[in-house]
Design goal:
The protein starts with a helix and ends in a 7-residue tail after the last helix. It has about 400 residues and is α+β, with helices and mostly antiparallel strands. The protein is built from 16 helices and 13 strands. Helix 12 packs across helix 14 and helix 14 runs antiparallel to helix 15. Bound molecules: adenosine-5'-diphosphate (ADP) and magnesium ion. The site of magnesium ion has 3 residues, from loops. One of its GO terms (cellular component) is extracellular region.
Length: about 400
């Protein structure tokens, strides 16, 4: 009798074991096949582009490449599910690394879509395609630019400020226009100005002309493709001080370029942070986040509303840290905003990138620290920066400085 019970128990246990093994095998094969062939492997291009929202999208220039699988997107839905920033990474068939950016958070898209019909006085349930028949896109564009300039403090400001006069917009966006489809272009431009002007800026300031911005691949629906330009400086804090100095020189050069290099416009960057500057293996730096920007037209004829236009505007002590007056920057033909901001991330109060300065540098070149402070608090930043550029240039040639390792904070 006992033998029988024992045998039954054994059989039951064996059965349970088999079921458990089968369940485990099934689960493993399920996940392996999903990882290999299923949607978990990579977010599908189709799901990222939102092409059905065009023409309320950024354009279609890179769609042929994306839809013929010439760009492979990495990562699986676990990360993309939590990818609030909407940034994806991939590589091209020729093995160039690219970054795919939706350029807005999902909630911003929702908000934009829910206001679209009302903005153009269309029926409440209008579809993006209906925008092709509206006649007042130009007017809406100018209104949007004017709003961003005079925005009330209570409302969140979105995107580009173009000043002092909104009509400069027509000249600004010339490099983005395609003469064959003016209405479509205007709706795309309106969408980018409403959500994120980055693709416009990357075409006005091409990397191929030496601007320290990502190489622009193009746009498809609501997705932008740019070259992966490296790692953010915020994760390169433990590198040799010499390397930091190299980056610092390039950051100062960029601040001057954004202020002076373009024939017609100045570009004041509003989001200076070590997260938004990346460096590649050649130690070139790139400003990757061009969402928040003031573009100033240097060539306007100032009206009575701009009595101080020809004076320079120097940053005043308006408050601690990163505060600035958009209004004042827009009332003067030249401001030192970029120069101050560059010095602030290198030497300001908030985790300054160049500090601590190695002791040996401080004792052999005490004026270096003094110059950085003068850039933060002095009166003539234009003069100080030029001196700083020379001093750093000299330091970079000094073999002793090349040898300094990382200084741990
Ligand atoms: N072209 C690029 N090359 C390398 N990294 C990039 C590039 N564009 C964005 N990134 C990375 O993605 C992060 C977020 O992108 P960003 O444009 O700054 O979006 P957000 O508006 O969310 O700050 C950046 O801090 C940077 O680390
Ligand atoms: Mg950023």
């Amino acid at each position: 009798m006992n033998d029988k019970i024992y045998e039954n128990m054994l059989l039951r246990r064996r059965f349970c074991k088999r079921v458990a093994l089968m369940a485990i095998a099934f689960t493993i094969s399920f996940y392996v096949s999903i990882l290999l062939f299923g949607d978990l492997k990579a977010p599908r291009v189709m799901n990222l582009t939102d092409l059905n929202r065009c023409p309320a999208c950024y354009g279609v220039s890179v769609c042929p490449e994306l839809y013929s699988n010439q760009v492979i997107i990495e990562g699986h839905t676990w990360s993309s599910m939590f990818n609030a920033k909407n940034i994806f990474y991939g590589y091209t068939k020729s093995n160039r690394r690219v970054v795919l950016k939706k350029l807005a958070h999902n909630s911003e898209f929702k908000d934009f879509d829910s206001k679209m019909c009302k903005t153009f006085n269309l029926k409440r349930n209008c579809r993006p395609i209906h925008l092709l028949n509206v006649t007042n896109v130009d007017e809406k564009l100018i209104k949007l630019v004017e709003y961003n300039f005079t925005w009330p403090d209570t409302e969140p400001r979105k995107g580009l400020v173009l000043c002092p006069y909104a009509y400069s917009l027509y000249d600004l966006v010339l490099p983005v226009l395609d003469s064959k489809k003016p209405q479509l272009d205007m709706i795309n431009i309106w969408t980018m100005l409403s959500l994120n002007p980055e693709p416009i800026i990357l075409q006005i300031l091409p990397k191929s002309s030496g601007w320290p911005v990502p190489a622009y691949g193009g746009v498809c629906g609501r997705l932008e493709v740019v070259a992966d330009e490296g790692e953010p400086l915020s994760s390169l804090t433990q590198v040799a001080w010499y390397r930091k100095l190299k980056f610092a020189k390039k950051i100062l050069d960029a601040a001057m370029d954004f202020t002076f290099k373009h024939d017609r416009f100045r570009f004041y960057l509003m989001d200076w942070s070590l997260d938004n500057i990346v460096a590649n293996e050649k130690d070139d730096i790139t400003f990757v986040d061009l969402e928040d920007l003031i573009v100033l037209d240097k060539h306007i004829s100032p009206g009575k509303d701009l009595p101080n236009w020809y004076q320079r505007y120097g940053r005043e002590l308006i408050g601690p840290g990163f505060t600035f007056s958009i209004e004042n920057m827009c009332k003067h033909h030249l401001s030192d905003h970029n120069l101050w901001a560059a010095c602030y991330i290198l030497a300001g109060d908030d985790d300054p990138y160049l500090y601590p300065i190695p002791k040996e540098v401080n004792s052999s070149r005490p004026h270096f620290d003094r110059l950085l402070n003068e850039c933060l608090n002095g009166v003539d930043r234009f003069k100080t920066i030029t001196t700083l550029q020379h001093v750093i240039g000299d330091m970079l040639m000094d073999e002793k400085i090349v040898g300094y390792g990382a200084v741990v904070r």
